[in-house]
Amino acid sequence: MSSGRCGGLLRVDPMTPKALVIAGRVTRPDVPALCAELESLLYDPEGRVRDPGVGVDCDVGGVVQVDLVLVEAIARLGLVARRAGGKRLRLRNVPAELRNLLDLVGLADAVNLRQQG
């Protein structure tokens, strides 16, 4: 992914090996790249799961538009995490609008929602 304030910006948090940060606006074409980036964090080059049992944090505090595309991205990221040995995606810094939308579509229980990182 490129640096700067582009749509669906994703970066790896250097302090936590299994954490991604999603900022900006996520568009539908961004979703496969987000899932691929998460897979690269979860699997080693030989395709083995890294650190089984360790959860995955996803910081969404920098998103600028909360919509169903973002919800789709989170749902797909959650599936990627679960396929990697049953890991659970934990959302950090969740805006109230996103929390409400996840609850409305029935995904609030599918991901762990955390206020603070």
Calculate Rg over CA atoms: 13 Å
Backbone shape: globular
Q: What is the total tally of β strands?
A: 5
Structural class: alpha/beta
Helix amount: 25-40%
| Largest sheet strand order | 1-2-3-4-5
Mean pLDDT: 82
What are the SSEs and their pairings?
Blueprint: E1 9-12, E2 19-24, H1 30-42, E3 56-63, H2 68-83, E4 89-92, H3 96-104, E5 112-114
Parallel strand pairs: 2-3, 3-4, 4-5
Antiparallel strand pairs: 1-2
Helix pairs in contact: 1-2
Please give a handful of descriptors for the protein shown.
117 residues, alpha/beta, 5-stranded mixed sheet, 3 helices, 21% strand
What can you see in these coordinates?
With 117 residues, the protein is an alpha/beta fold. Helix content is 32%, strand content 21%. The protein is built from three helices and five strands, in the order ββαβαβαβ. It has a five-stranded mixed β-sheet with strand order 1-2-3-4-5. A hairpin with a 6-residue loop joins strand 1 (9-12) and strand 2. Helix 1 packs parallel to helix 2 (68-83). Mean pLDDT is 82; it is low at 1-6 and 9-17.
Question: Can you describe this structure in just a few lines?
Answer:
With 117 residues, the protein is an alpha/beta fold. It has helices spanning 30-42, 68-83, 96-104, and strands spanning 9-12, 19-24, 56-63, 89-92, 112-114.
